């Protein structure tokens, strides 16, 4: 596994270094003051450096590192989600429980690989008990809106995100002890697809995909990004239990889900009247702005691998 | 009391202030929005909306370490001076300035106490509503301290600061905070115009602060 990890890290460093050099050349040649697109590009690349370093460090701590990293990502994402939605004073205890009980318990289930409860804890028990607690408080104003937002908040930012470290619990024959590479594959392919969609969109984007939801998503960006990300997936098949063709297909499905995740996140932001979820990551916005695609891709990727590749 | 002499931070105060600022960041990701004024170490009175005990921690977390060491929150002596423990927290840890609203002796005059802080070159954080706002109103009417201080020391900048979301993080009667993102919006300085009357000034300062709320529809 050392060998594969070294290749991935060298590859990522090469891509980031190239990106930084390209951005520096573009900035040096461009008329001053720099356009907001160029400033934002540089900020985004710098933030990528930080994110890649953080994820790599967490990677070296293995199961501990991944579980803690994604629990923290859930915390940041949930905080952004709840901030954006309507809450009432009487929701205080439910909200506290979301941060103080649901996040730790869900990640404890990941840690102990208790699959049976991991998949139903939030969609069954939290789904039923959270609105019950809210009802017991007796505040019925905008009740359905409040409980729906709470459900969505924990499903998206805790349940879906927790499927990334849960990949470590899968038992893929002839792949024992290398599950970390599944996480690396998923993150690189899905985040890579975001970047590739951005690049294809900026270079060739003409026809908007859904002007009402997201002005920045174009057909050219979508198709270029998905095709190139699928090729990237095939290229990375050596770190996975998949054949190159299978890797391309899995990458295509994951990145398509990722695209839909970005679309849904944009629709929520538009509905709430904001441009970004937050400001945690300079140039990107909040944690949810960076993870919206991963959130949609992770559970589907998890279940594809579980259904077709585990015993 | 008005002979109160201020030094820059003791070790305890520095540790408390760094610790609380870090805590504020972990819970609320607090960040300042400088919308009309800029960070500066010149002498200021920061005045803000007040809904929870966490307000002044959030505001001071937005200041630099250097400014924090010379910026004191004005707190109610009736509450924070009640027991030795409370007084220790308020004065020795948070370096607040305690004032009594029901004062009798001349040395308890709140304005005199606040002026003595300003005269030592230090800055103040003031909540001109006078108490935590527990109502549905976004901002209660201002008391006149702000006007009196500005008339007595016109060279000190009055900076309006809107603290966002804190009423949701720590609602009335709760002591465990819900992690939600908070911002503090620092507006352009307000000053008493020549010949401006007390009430007119207070209403203008009130409106200026209210106008800083970035998402007014959300205040519920």
UniProtKB/TrEMBL annotation, chain A:
GO terms for cellular component: plasma membrane. Pfam families: CTP_transf_1. The chain crosses the membrane at residues 7-28, 48-78, 90-109, 115-136, 148-168, 180-200, 221-239, 245-268, 293-309. Keywords: Membrane, Nucleotidyltransferase, Transferase, Transmembrane, Transmembrane helix. GO terms for biological process: peptidoglycan-based cell wall biogenesis. GO terms for molecular function: nucleotidyltransferase activity. It comes from the Bacteria. The keyword Hydrolase does not apply. This is Phosphatidate cytidylyltransferase. It comes from Mesorhizobium kowhaii.
From TrEMBL, chain B:
This is 1-acyl-sn-glycerol-3-phosphate acyltransferase. Keywords: Acyltransferase, Transferase. Pathway: Lipid metabolism. Residues 44-166 form the Phospholipid/glycerol acyltransferase domain. One of its GO terms (biological process) is phosphatidic acid biosynthetic process. It comes from the Bacteria. GO terms for molecular function: 1-acylglycerol-3-phosphate O-acyltransferase activity. The keyword Lipid metabolism does not apply.
